[in-house]
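Re: duplicated header lines in exported structure tokens

Our pipeline writes sequence and tokens for each protein into one text file. With two proteins the header for the second block appears twice in some exports. Here is an export where it did not happen, for reference. First protein block:
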Amino acid sequence: MRALSKLFFAALGMLCLASCIRGPLHDGSPLRCAISLAGAESGSRLLCGYNYELAERFAEAEGREATIRLAGHQESVIDSLKHGKLDLVMLPYADSLAADSLLVWHPADSCGIWVFAAADEAQAEFAGNWLGQLHTLPEYAQLRQPFLDIYNPMTRVSADFISPYDSLIKVYADTLGWDWKLLAALIYQESKFHIEARSPRGAAGLMQLVPNTARHFGCRDWLDPEENIRAGSLMLRAVEQKYKHIAANNTELAKYTLAAYNAGASRIADCVRYARHLGVDVSYWENVAAVIPDMKHDSIAALDAIKLGTFHGRETVSYVRRVNRYYKHYRHICP
């Protein structure tokens, strides 16, 4: 999708530039964007990801970079726009914006509006032309649909795509030697394909990376889908190396890698050591998973093999099974 969109968005930008009769639209600085989800209906629509994608392509059409962030719940992004701290604000609905002579807005589509400062008339005009032309392109439906579909994998019987990020997922699954549908299943489990997903402990983005991990693997912008998937894949590759000498085959290696992605490699190392203490064949993940319930008892801490103490590992066992269940279904419904 991204390779195709780069071509038609660039051509669209040239067409719209030709229709703008005013002077330069910008000084080459990044397009500063904020996406607000205030008032948006909760559910499966990936509105943040959709606006992020459009903002990137709009900036590309202007020949500039974009800096895109998610607005805070209580943040007054409209005030920031009026004071020149932002260039573009994306809101879910037109009725969420009061009439104001200092603002100009254009409908992005039925999902929301783009708002500009009235003082930035040329920019707003260009955006209106760009959006209007975008809606007439046959490629538009292909771009839009993956962000608005229902994503529960267990309720779909067939699909031409799994997510809006399939092309990225395929690239980074190849670096792991994974079937891309397995990586897609992991991402669905982590974030349901919402780029703005945040956990109470600070994990963020499509692959739910905690800040230290994100930085370690080169993710500077957790909201950026490609940066997040690339960093998460690098983490998976690093984790996978720890189990190549243990796992009986690639299927078991993937299960170990999923478990460590969820619980941490050190915690899974404890599980392996405990299973070996019991004489269990650790080359198969399910054998290890079967003894994990024992690790919640305080007596486990007395064993020299256990480094991190007790472990309530039910969630990790369920995590591996859920991801593999989604993966199995994805293989069935998507060519």
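Second protein block, exported in the same file:
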Amino acid sequence: MVDIAKRMFNQNWKIDPIVRSLLDTDFYKILMNQFIFKNAKEVTAKFKLINRSKDISLVELISEEELRNQLDQARNLSLSRGEATWLRGNHFYGNEMMFTPDYVRWLEQFALPEYNLTKRNGNYELTFEGLWYEVSLWEIPALSIVSELRSRAILKTMGKFELQVLYARAMTKLWEKIEKLKKLSDLRIADFGTRRRHSFLWQDWCIQAMNEGLGEKFLGTSNCLIAHRRELEAIGTNAHELPMIYSALAVTDSELSKAPYKVLGEWQKQYDGNLRIILPDTYGSESFFKNAPDWLATWTGVRIDSGNPVRGAETALKWWESKGEDTTKKLLIFSDGLDVNAIEMLYARFSASARLSFGWGTLLTNDFRGLGIDLDSNPISIVCKAISANGKPTVKISDDFGKSLGRVSDLNRYKRVFA
């Protein structure tokens, strides 16, 4: 087994770049990327890394040189022959040839495009601008790089034995969580922790622990590289990026109100089965369900990703019932800020009402709280969002208004249109 403490101590080892493959990304990004490649190839977009943890100055922790080195390292990556073969030949969600030959051929020639990095108000401003289907693939590598550079900065002053003890404690802490989760008889859980992980090596260890400890209850991982190397299922569907950009491209209020459903209508032409998962909260879940076309009720499930998860699940269940659907055959996926207590509560509350699945993210792959680190070891809240499309600003409202994105005038318009 990899000695993570030793590798963290020897941070300059070239064997440990933070992003080590173009597949070191989440599966939903590849699915969405193929969708964009087919349906919106001419659209341009701008993405921006946003630090929601206002009290943490990344400039004070991470040197610009280190950040640029890791970003440049990621730009030098290309898809290997074995990785391309995995995409071409593997069964994803039970489907053969999920990725078309023309898309994989393009991806084999792809390298991450240029980035823009400046400093502003005590933080880095990191943006990516260009064709949507190209710059979109920066999201996960950028987040992984910033998150792991922060981890390295926090642990930089620790000695070899201190690091050994720290990782031993972290391993014990995770295994205790796994032992609690084992008691849930019909649990279905996956790793969603790439974006804000402590490090690649730690995410890999966590996934191996979950696989051994939970067996069939562990569905797989969102991380394509680890899924490929560990022969696990790659898990993921779609994200807020799609309705945000389709909405930004809408001209009239009528077109705007229909945009979140238009993109899903195009999605179902390309993907089926368990890839037909609704993410309703981009502009408020209750508004989404109130105005949703009837055909969406036949989709496989709903992902609850913001706001009160109990309220979100109840809203989805009531909507299915109003459409005459059998909720026990529907899939509810919880994925917002989960840890063991929340998973246990949601399982107890909804396991009889629907099929449940949990996407366990940051507190699976980056929970070093209370393990004796002097500096703040709470995971940092960072996102990388599309902020414009074809030069038009994007908006996100969410069921948690603290996650909102956009100018005040645009937010007011969207709140009016989506009630």
